[in-house]
Design goal:
This protein is α/β, with parallel strands linked by helices. The chain contains ten helices and seven strands. The longest helix has 14 residues. It starts with 17 loop residues before the first helix and ends in a 7-residue tail after the last strand. About 40% of the residues are buried.
């Protein structure tokens, strides 16, 4: 799905009439726009529609740049069992599902019920719901259910964290304790530079021995277009592979 081009992207020009036709007062307001501008079953078209909607109404979704990085990570790791914590409206879940190998599945956990409703609707419309299961609840609270779905004693091949940033470290440690993280498990985390995830990068730092970690630079996806003083922020996705060794203190 990922494509590359030497041609720089054309700057997006907002059409003021868009706001009169399409509102965003609640999460489900994105659904009519996606259905009007993308064909059912066209997952790439759904992603593009969500990107366009996000240009007018900035939202905490992964964004195209990071989506392509995540897609490459998924293809490289080729996970059979993938887990996502923090699904929002389903954008990153669609990117992941598009790049999973045959027979693989993605289990998502999303706290906000309204977001779960939209994510289920959009993954279904995109044609990837056969590979995506979305659970409602807090990441830590649903760990036992994720373990049951994957199978006790079977670690996830890939885990993507994109929920409350303060939760990254405690939730990762809870997943480790539950057996969801094992040797070879890849843990991908968004927003580790901006706004940052307290203690997380220190915990997965390569020097500690429990993970080998690489950062992939990318721009912060939430552009505050209404704020004239806003300066776009630099961010990164972290890619950490569990070594199976105990961390060094």
């Amino acid at each position: 799905v990922e494509t590359t081009s030497s041609i720089p992207p054309t700057p997006f020009v907002r059409d003021p009439s868009f706001y009169g036709e399409w509102s965003y007062a609640q999460p489900s307001d994105i659904i009519p726009f996606v259905r009007a501008t993308a064909a059912e079953g066209d997952a790439v078209g759904v992603l593009r529609a969500m990107d366009t909607f996000g240009q007018y109404y900035p939202m905490y979704k992964l964004g195209d740049e990071k989506g392509r990085i995540l897609a490459r990570m998924v293809r490289d790791r080729a996970p059979v069992h993938a887990v996502e914590v923090g699904t929002f409206l389903g954008y990153s879940a669609i990117w992941t599902a598009l790049n999973l190998p045959p027979g693989s599945g993605l289990i998502c956990v999303e706290f906000e019920p309204r977001h779960v409703e939209v994510a289920r609707a959009l993954t279904t419309y995109a044609g990837v719901s056969d590979r995506v299961q979305i659970l409602q609840g807090a990441g830590a609270a649903r760990i036992p259910d994720v373990v049951k779905l994957i199978g006790p004693g079977t670690p996830a091949d890939m885990i993507f964290l994109d929920h409350c940033k303060e939760c990254y470290l405690p939730d990762l440690r809870a997943m480790e304790a539950a057996g969801l993280v094992g040797k070879g498990t890849v843990v991908v985390a968004d927003n580790v530079v901006y706004p940052g995830a307290p203690g997380f990068l220190e915990y997965v730092d390569t020097s500690r021995g429990a993970y080998t970690t690489t950062l992939f630079d990318a721009a912060f996806e939430y552009d505050q277009v209404w704020n004239k003083e806003w300066v776009p922020q630099k961010d990164a996705l972290s890619f950490s592979t569990c070594t199976g060794r105990a961390a060094q203190v």
